[in-house]
Amino acid sequence: MDIISEVNWAVEHVREGDYDTALADYERITRVHPESTDGWNSCGLFYHNAGDYDKAITCFTKGVELRPEFPFFWSNRAISYGEKGDFDKALADFDHALHLDPENTWVFEHRSDVYGKMGDWGRALAELDRAISLEPENSRLFGARGAAYNRLGNKEQAIADYTEAIRLNPDDAYFRFNRGLIHWYITTTTDFDLAMEDFTATIERAPDMADAHYARGYGYMLQIKGFQGTITAVVTEKVQDEAIRAVLLTELAQVGYNEMIPWMDNLYKTLRLPRDRLDSLMIESASLLTKYSLGEALEDLDRAITLNPAHDKAYLCRGHVYRMAGDKERAVADYEQVLTLVPHHNEAQKQLDALMVALS
Length: 360
What we know:
- The chain has helices at residues 3-15, 19-32, 37-49, 53-66, 71-84, 87-100, 105-117, 121-134, 139-151, 155-168, 173-184, 189-205, 210-238, 242-254, 260-271, 275-291, 294-307, 312-324, 328-341, 346-359.
- The protein has 360 residues and is mostly helical.
- The chain starts with a helix and ends with a helix.
């Protein structure tokens, strides 16, 4: 069997998930064909993807020794050095690769990764600027630069780059998900809605992405929670009697969201609070019940947990949703699960303690 066929056979074993057989294939290839650059490069890529960077570096070094004029051996070894945290050697290898091929966008892109790992996001951005000038239709480069702008705090430019990446590659789920996360942290209502649209579009393209289901479920929960906070502020402002105010705020903390409208209706009848203000809040509540229902939040969070049973954030968020719905027992179970996954989780412990007092 020729070397190319043997490499293809090993690659097929990797695709099938038979890594032990693939490893045996690569070891045989480098033993039987010690002068084959294809063999050493393929073996190095296998070890790199397996996280064994030292062995990957050994393979790529053998390639460098055999064909030092090939830039990809230098750049591949640089990437492994970068993953290992040996940044000086990584940068030196990238420099040599660019000496051999000055317009290699792959090198600029991955040297940017190393600068990012070093925390030098300014240089990371400059590398991506150079890469994009060489390949202006490469969606991956715009996605990487969007991430760099985000780390530098330039969210508007980050969104612009992710938007361009989506234009170039409309089916990529991760570009939409990452843009949604940036919209999420810009606090206007418009950006929140855009974030939810991006999370929905992400799920349409990657229905098994647990983090996307979690993010959208958290969004449903947060919007409803924000409405509850508005009602809390109204009670605090309008109820002058401290004792009555304390009782109402305690009730409000425990009332399920689906019980909120009748609770508010009783509130203004009993206390004769300004009806126009409360009416507008109840209209808003009814709207949110339609647009951001707890049922939708639970559906997304259930899916996130099914896809990733160790997703502590999804359990925590689902606990909040159950608490808001008045289902204290299930909320307790989810907070306990968070503490099983993350034993010293302060927020889960705080919520659990409060619920145990309420249940007792």
